[in-house]
Specification:
By secondary structure, the protein is α+β, with helices and mostly antiparallel strands. The chain is built from 10 helices and 40 strands. The chain is globular and about 75 Å long.
Length: 666
């Protein structure tokens, strides 16, 4: 029997602790021998990332006990933190980065003993950090990206490719680390060694570009002593983003370039590129789909070559499917199954492809595709329904019309419950979700945090505003010079449309977001007058200081494309910043901040809170020790989710007893 009750008052079995337990997803797949390895979150263990392996017989085990935390801090967002190989005796040799000290460790998981450090500590700035390793037992080395701080400032840093001895001789000796490249480029990805071992390729880019704006494919020869010689750019450029590079079995280079406006797969013969850059050949030259994405983390993989010459690749428009591409015929055949979104983390073993996939009815799980039989099946991290799936939301992928008639892509999650329904004619309260990045994307997958609200009668609209990825370069460049304008307008256009059609209650609209989404939320509260309240998490709030040494190196010049060069448009930095328009905010807000955040530091939030307090704006400011940019710990997630619901209940006049009340200060 379905009970009629006002939206927002419905009971739900989805509590905040259940949301926290299912926060995060598997990442960084790899194959070692016959085993599949990956990292996965442990919110209940202080938010650490565990390394897990699955044996050929299907058993799963965590490789390292707490407090080992397999996670890199290179460019602060990290990347591929581990690699494995078979040693000369057939045993497994594991190399990984431990988050607490950022040292590289070696470990023999089947031989007993403890992990042993391979790299030294450094007292300079952020120290020494490592990412995207490649284990080469035959050379007695692991090749990877080294990020080395040279001073105390966040941009006092250099990055090179380096070789670390596997014998541990560099554990206390920085001089024993062999640098494979110079530091002429500000950013690099890990090395990709050719099948014959004669050449190596990697990606590089420099300030002020971000990797989705312009990168280069670098190619070098590998000498007998393991040094790199003749490094040169063979693809990419300042206005061309190459998201990934790999070697095919025949010794040609495969890479994903957006030279034609969409990330597409290309092939390049390195012999033809010996004199420098050469034109690559598109392998599936059909615009309108992406075969790559934004390189927020070092070592993401959207494609990998398979035996026989075919290529496993993610592709799509607004979503990622897994397909097998025949580069000779151009034929692309997708895997069959219920999954509608694949994460950029692939591994291959023989004729098998392993990926991480989800759908609106299932969380991310590890899926294996047998390319011989065409059969796809879940092999690990299997989704299990923690409650009756009838409580899951029923999302709608929609396209709205924004200013100037532009398309705005969004996912709308109306209130949904198997036991309760709204009174006839009642429009629901709705929360607009602005994703981070802002060069990012909100996937259409099961998220229990969304279900937490929709099952209580509060709708959610995730907006892939102009600047989002998945829709081609032109769509994501709508935000060039327009951050704080286009994103705000697009979120408002979706909210207004939902209200106009009667789906959302215009008087009960809210907005929320984290990181860049926190910026959009604060800017929206300061400029639109549309929202009754907002939840701002670890945000950018003060552009001038953020661009003047208050953030990390990776994004320190990001605003030059999002806003404009600060020396040319200094007034724009002030005029766009919510900090300087706090007096225009009339709606109450909740501000959530990790105290260890070096990307959007607490200083930004503290200045904003102090400024809004001058105007008597109702607000709550919650801080969390031990949390950085994004929340990982169970207790933090529980407190944040419950506080957000309490804000909406209080603002919208909804009586709820299942969350602690939120005290708002003026």
């Amino acid at each position: 029997m379905v009970t009629t009750a006002p939206c927002g008052t419905w009971p739900s079995p989805i509590d905040a602790r259940l949301v926290a337990a299912h926060d995060g997803r598997p990442e960084y797949l790899g194959v070692v021998g016959e085993e599949v390895w990956w990292t996965e979150p442990r919110p209940e263990e202080g938010g650490r990332r565990a390394l897990v392996r699955r044996g050929p017989e299907g058993t799963e085990e965590s490789v390292l006990p707490p407090p080992w935390n397999v996670r890199s801090r290179v460019i602060e967002y990290g990347g591929q933190p581990w690699a494995g190989a078979r040693d000369a005796h057939g045993g497994t040799l594991l190399v990984f980065v431990h988050f607490a000290d950022q040292r590289l460790y070696a470990y023999a998981p089947d031989g007993g003993g403890e992990p042993r450090p391979l790299t030294p500590l450094s007292a300079v700035g952020g120290g020494l950090r490592w990412v995207d390793p490649v284990v080469l037992p035959g050379r007695g080395e692991v090749w990877c990206v080294l990020e080395e701080f040279t001073g105390e400032g966040p941009s006092d840093v250099r990055r090179v490719l380096a070789a670390v001895p596997l014998d541990g001789s560099a554990a206390d000796d920085r001089a024993a680390v062999r640098e494979l490249t110079d530091d002429r480029h500000r950013f690099v990805t890990g090395p990709r060694l050719s099948p014959d071992g004669r050449r190596v390729a990697w990606l590089a880019w420099d300030h002020p570009r971000m990797p989705w704006e312009g990168t280069e494919v670098l190619l070098a020869e590998v000498a007998g002593d393991g040094t790199f010689t003749g490094a040169r750019a063979v693809a990419g450029g300042p206005e061309e983003s190459v998201a990934q590079v790999e070697w095919a079995a025949d010794g040609t280079l495969l890479y994903a370039s957006d030279a034609a406006g969409w990330w597409q797969l290309h092939r390049l013969d390195p012999e033809a590129a010996d004199g420098g850059a050469a034109a690559g050949t598109p392998l599936h030259p059909v615009c309108g789909e992406e075969f790559g994405g934004p390189l927020w983390k070092v070592g993401l993989r959207w494609f990998l070559p398979l035996e026989g010459g075919t290529i496993a690749t993610l592709h799509g428009h607004g979503a990622n499917a897994l397909g097998i591409l025949d580069p000779v015929t151009g034929e692309l055949v997708d895997a069959v199954g219920p999954w509608t979104e694949w994460a950029p983390s692939l591994a291959v073993h023989g004729s098998r492809v392993i990926g991480i996939a989800a759908s609106p009815r299932s969380s991310y799980e590890i899926v294996e595709l047998d390319t011989v039989t065409g059969r796809a099946r879940v092999i690990a991290a299997r989704h299990t329904d923690a409650l009756d799936p009838a409580y899951y939301p029923e999302p709608q992928a929609r396209t709205f019309t924004g200013p100037d008639g532009r398309d705005i892509h969004a996912h709308v999650y109306p209130p949904h419950s198997p036991t309760h329904a709204a009174p006839e004619g009642e429009a629901a309260p709705f929360v607009v979700w602005a994703h981070g990045g802002p060069t990012g994307h909100a996937p259409l997958v099961l998220d229990l945090e969304i279900a937490y609200f929709t099952s209580r009668g509060i709708g959610v609209a995730e907006v892939n505003y102009g600047g989002s990825t998945g829709y081609g370069r032109e769509y994501r460049e709508r935000l060039r010079g327009q951050w704080g304008v286009v994103d705000v307008e697009d979120c408002a256009a979706v909210a207004e449309a939902l209200a106009a059609e009667g789906t959302a209650d215009r008087s009960r609209l809210a907005i929320r977001g984290g990181s860049a989404g926190g910026w959009t939320t604060a800017a929206s509260l300061a400029t639109t007058g549309l929202y009754a309240c907002g939840t701002i998490s670890y945000p950018v709030l003060d552009l001038t200081n953020w661009a003047s040494g208050e953030t990390h190196d990776f994004e320190s010049r990001y605003l030059e494309s999002l806003v404009g060069p600060i020396d040319e448009v200094p007034d724009r930095y002030r005029d766009r910043s919510p900090l300087h328009h706090a007096g225009r905010i009339t709606a109450p807000f909740l501000l959530l901040q990790g105290l260890d955040d070096v990307i959007c530091p607490p200083a930004q939030a503290e200045r904003f809170v102090a400024r809004t307090a001058e105007y008597g704006i109702p607000h709550a400011y919650l801080t969390f020790e031990g949390e950085g940019h994004g929340f990982r710990r169970e207790d933090t997630i529980v407190r944040a989710v419950e506080a957000e619901l309490a804000l909406y209940a209080q603002t919208f006049g909804i009586e709820r007893t299942d969350v602690p009340p939120l005290e708002l200060h003026k």
